[in-house]
Structure formats: structure tokens, C-alpha cells
Specification:
Blueprint lengths: L10 H13 L6 H14 L3 E5 L2 H11 L7 E5 L4 H9 L3 E5 L9 H7 L4 E4 L11 H9 L1 H6 L5 H6 L3 E5 L7 E2 L2 E2 L6 E5 L12 E5 L7 H11 L8 H4 L20 H12 L1 H20 L5 E2 L8 E2 L5 E5 L4 H13 L15 H5 L8 H8 L1 E4 L7 H19 L1
Parallel strand pairs: 2-3, 2-4, 4-5, 5-8
Antiparallel strand pairs: 1-9, 6-7, 6-11, 8-9, 10-12, 12-13
Helix pairs in contact: 1-11, 2-11, 3-4, 13-16
This protein binds pyridoxal-5'-phosphate (PLP).
Length: about 400
Amino acid sequence: MIPFSPPRIDQKIIDAVTETLRSGWITTGPKTKAFEKKLTEFAGHQATLCVSSATAGLELMLRWYGVGEGDEVIIPAYTYAATANVVVHCGAKPVFVDISDDFNIAVDGIEKAITTRTKVIIPVDIAGFPCDYDEINSLVKQPDIQHLFQPKNQQQNKLNRILVLSDSAHSIGAWYKGKRTGNLTDVSVYSFHAVKNLTTAEGGAICFNLPEPFDNQKIYDILNIQSLHGQDKDAFAKAEKSNWRYDIVEPGYKSNMTDILASIGLVELARYDSDNLVRRKQIFDQYKTSFSHYSWAQLPEYENENKQSSYHVFLLRIKDVTETQRDQIIRKIFEQDVAVNVHFIPLPMMSYYKNAGYNIENYPVSYNNYSREITLPVYYDLGDDQVKTVIAAVVNAVQAIVG
Ligand SMILES: *Cc1c(COP(=O)(O)O)cnc(C)c1O
């Protein structure tokens, strides 16, 4: 069986984790701080806070911006549930917008969805392909749009416009006009979940990049405390000689990263550009070259003059098939011992969101893309022969179902 996305656990990772286990410090400490520094250097934004997941990072940021009851947050209909669930956790309303052909949120759809209640837009770089950030960033600064914004607190007064909070769960390392994700909007959040490009088993990072007069280092300090119960000293600082006394400055959350996980991240990040991304691009190119021979195959866009993907997952679409036929094709692929997936089932089709009144008929591009989509595996350890096996399995399956 060719698995869909096994983690890359080699001797280097095992050695790094072992060293941390033996170091006497396993929770948040020097490894986490070193990983944060490397991430900031990597993407070029202002400051990075490592957290326990991207979900936690997104929610911390929504709460930092004071998002709550009566507020609206614009997100794509086509994303993983985390993007919407955090909005619900805060008591605000997710406003779904349909996507474009490239699977990312449609900018004209965002514009139509903005109201006086809109506080945040969460664009998602689906499959690692960056959204149209110049358009999104200038939209929120457009005078007629900025005029609609109704600030309710200090943070909102200071920014005086909609916050652009990127869900960059898929896109660490991707490029947009010479800059990396993390450095493209006010704030971006990476995920280091087990199936993501760069994994620490579980984990995430908040990349701060707010404009003047915000002090990103100061926001880091505040959220660092907020992610650890509002305690003014972390356990590492408390472990210093006679430094035992601490205060709780607010009822914070518990979403810190551990040094065990950060030590995996440090190994992964050091080789991310030089081998992980290189291999992923090779696999994308191999899929593209092979499938371009078949008229039924619709290939995803993953690089153009302005954008370069992080090659997270390969979103193949089969032309002119129904959702049922696509499901049959997937079954045939699995019968050939190849694991594939679907990224994603649009959120308006999920029970909770359907029951909350969202209707997939209002998101025709999302449904169309979803109904014909099959996600192919992409990961460092996937060999050339395995890629050929995946391609052959897909070709056989499509021919068996649609002839
Ligand atoms: C995986 C994922 C998340 C959540 O990441 P976690 O680190 O598991 O919280 C958020 N958004 C998208 C688009 C994802 O795919």
C-alpha cells in the first residue's frame, strides 16, 4: 500500500528528539525559542510565536483582535473545518465566500461579503498556493471599504480596518512576488500537524507582521503569556535560581509548544528548502507531465510569474464527472493499494454548518471543484517508482469508470 502522507522520521529526527529528552528540559524552553527565531529568519516577518496547533494560533489571534458576538469573519467555503470552527469558538459568525478555479478564495466574493460587522478575513493558501494577496491587502485599505469598518477596541482602533489573518497551514515556504508566506499579510499562521509539509507531530506558529504603529515584539510578548495561562514567567524562567514567584495577569489559554516538538521542527526547517521542497516540486512536475497526456485530467496551477507553491498536496480534477463517479474512481484507486484523499469537502456540506443555515448551492465553484477532485500523495519519501504507481492507478481507475 502506498500511504497518503507518512511523516518523515529518520535518524536525524530521532537523534534530535533523543537529545531533547535527555537534556532535562522537555516543555517550552530553549528549543522552542530557537525554532521561533529560525522561522522568523526563514520568512522575513517581524516575530514568531510557536503554539500547540494552527487552530490555537488562529483562535488566539481572533481573540487578540477582540472578535466576538455580533462580528463577522470572512473565510473560504473550501477549507478545513479549523478555519471556521475558531470563528464559532469566539462567538462570531463565519461568512463563507466561494473560491476561484485555483481553489483559493475569490477576491470579488470577499468584496461582496464585507459588511459593517466584518472584522477579519482569513484567506487560506489551499494546497500551498498563495492567495491573491496584493488584491486582498489593497481591498481592506480601499476608502469605501475602510469606511465601513466599525472599531470596538484598542487594537481595532489602531489598525482601523479589517485584519488580514492568513491561514498558511499548507503554505510554509511558498512564494508570492518575491516574499514568503508569513510575510505577506498582517498575521499568518502555519500548521506543523503530522500530515503537513513541515511537521512537528502537532504544532503551529503565529507569524506577526502588523504595520506601524504596532510593535510586533510586544504583541509576541503578550501572546506568549496568553498562550500559557496568563502566567508572567514560563516554567523555564521559573526554573532559574530563586525565580519561583509568578503572577497570573489574565485568564490565559494553554497552547504552548514543547521543546520535544520544536527539536523536530528545527531539523525539518534546516533541510526544508534544500531537500523537502525540492522533492515535492519534482513529484508535482512528474504528475503534471504524466497527466497532461490525458484529456480528462485537469491540472492544478502551482506556479506562475508571481507565485510558487509549497507543493503540499496535488489537487487533480477529473473533467466532466459527477461526485458519484469521482467516488467510484477513488474506490478503484484504493483497490490498487494507493491511498488518495479529497481536499476538501466544502464546509457548507458539513452537518454543523448545514444545520446552521449554510447552503452549498450558494458556492457553486466550491462544489464543482470538490465533486471532481482527487488529492494525490506528495511527500519527501515518495519515490519515483511509487509516483509512477500512483499515476497508473489513477489512469486505470478513470478508464474503468468513465471509459
Ligand atoms: C491542518 C489545517 C489547519 C489546522 O492545523 P492544526 O495545526 O491541525 O490546528 C487549519 N487550516 C487548514 C487549511 C488546514 O489544512
